């Protein structure tokens, strides 16, 4: 007797890489919005584990969910297109290490616009005082 084997349908490699690219974009936009996977899951009505799978490209994402993420991240739908929306250099500004992440998180919690501008002016001072650039004008 032949045994019936339940195999998952194979997804072509190009589709896997497209899902992974979209997942990376979703993660980048989430981080730029200052949200955790748990934050997104709660606001979207699903678990943080599902958010992880979406960001890794394991699970496919439907259009309606993508629209809701765009609203949550306050970005246009084109931001999810790898070659459109946010420029690549802006996505590459994601925190690279723990100190940068902590600084960004702390900065986002400052509610006073005046205090944020003062801190930004101080950061510009430390960053550019050696090379003589005058970048202390903060808008």
Model description:
- Helix content is 58%, strand content 0%.
- It has 2 domains: 9-89, Orthogonal Bundle (434 Repressor (Amino-terminal Domain)), CATH 1.10.260.40; 95-139, no CATH class.
- The chain has 139 residues and is an all-alpha fold.
- The model has no long low-confidence stretch (mean pLDDT 77).
- The chain has 7 helices and no strands.
- The relative contact order is 0.10.
- The longest helix has 20 residues, at 13-32.
Structural class by helix and strand composition: mainly alpha
- What is the tally of helical segments? 7
* Alpha carbon gap, first and last residue: 76 Å
What oligomeric state is this? single chain
- CATH H level, superfamily name of the largest domain: lambda repressor-like DNA-binding domains
Please tell me the overall pLDDT. Answer: 77
The structural domain count equals 2
- Indicate the radius of gyration in whole angstroms: 20 Å
Order of helices and strands: HHHHHHH
CATH class of the largest domain: Mainly Alpha
User: Percent range for helical residues?
Assistant: 55-70%
Shape: elongated
Strand content: under 5%
CATH topology of the largest domain: 434 Repressor (Amino-terminal Domain)
Largest sheet: none
Contiguous low-pLDDT stretches (5 residues minimum) are none
CATH architecture of the largest domain: Orthogonal Bundle
Number of strands: 0
């Amino acid at each position: 007797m032949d045994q019936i084997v339940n195999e998952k349908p194979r997804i072509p490699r190009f589709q896997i890489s497209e899902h992974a690219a979209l997942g990376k974009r979703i993660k980048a936009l989430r981080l730029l919005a200052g949200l955790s996977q748990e934050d997104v899951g709660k606001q979207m009505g699903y678990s943080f584990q599902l958010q992880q799978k979406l960001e890794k490209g394991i699970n496919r994402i439907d259009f309606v969910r993508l629209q809701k993420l765009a609203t949550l991240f306050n970005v246009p739908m084109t931001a999810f297109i790898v070659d459109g929306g946010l420029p690549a250099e802006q996505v590459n500004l994601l925190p690279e290490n723990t100190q940068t992440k902590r600084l960004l998180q702390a900065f986002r919690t400052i509610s006073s616009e005046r205090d944020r501008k003062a801190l930004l002016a101080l950061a510009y001072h430390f960053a550019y005082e050696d090379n003589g650039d005058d970048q202390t004008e903060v808008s």
